[in-house]
Write a structure and sequence with these properties.
Strand order of the largest sheet: 3-6-9-12-14-15
CATH superfamily: Hexapeptide repeat proteins
Helix content: 25-40%
Number of strands: 15
Number of helices: 4
CATH topology: UDP N-Acetylglucosamine Acyltransferase, domain 1
CATH class: Mainly Beta
Order of helices and strands: HHHHEEEEEEEEEEEEEEE
Largest sheet: 6 strands, mixed
Strand content: 15-25%
Number of domains: 1
Length: 182
Amino acid sequence: MICPNLRADIQRFGNDRPNIRTLVRGLASQGFQAILVYRFFHWLGAYNIPSQPFRFVFERLIEIFTGISIPAECKIGKGLRIHHFGGIILHPSTVIGNNCTLYHQVTIGDRGGRGGSAIIGDNVLIGAGAKIIGEINIGNNCRIGANAVINKDVPDDSVAYGNPCIIAPTKSKEYNKTGVSE
């Protein structure tokens, strides 16, 4: 479970060519460091292996050094890519599909202590500063614009932008693994 997910995460750095350069590039990325810590403690939790207080210490250190908070309770598919570290906050109930991309200052959270968090589909790109609030669904192959505030469901193959959010269908339904239309 942990190795295929990590392999897919690393491959996102090298255009699907796994080699030593791609691995070094990934390990030097603060976003990948946060993903690595998440994957390890999520794996321990899945097998009911106790990890406290080490998990608490490592998650806080990652938050301090990278500005990224990914609780081990999140459910994240393979191939997550975090561009431009910093300010990324995920609620523990967040679910993210395969091959998604997050830019800096993204928040995926609840409605102020009430309810859970969003379910994000596969091949979704979430732009810098976007806020996804509440128990909503973001479909597959969606693009969330920079600084958008999303508080309602977004159907598959859509673009969401603005505050309040505006949802529009995309012109192209063909997507590659980075979530960018071809």
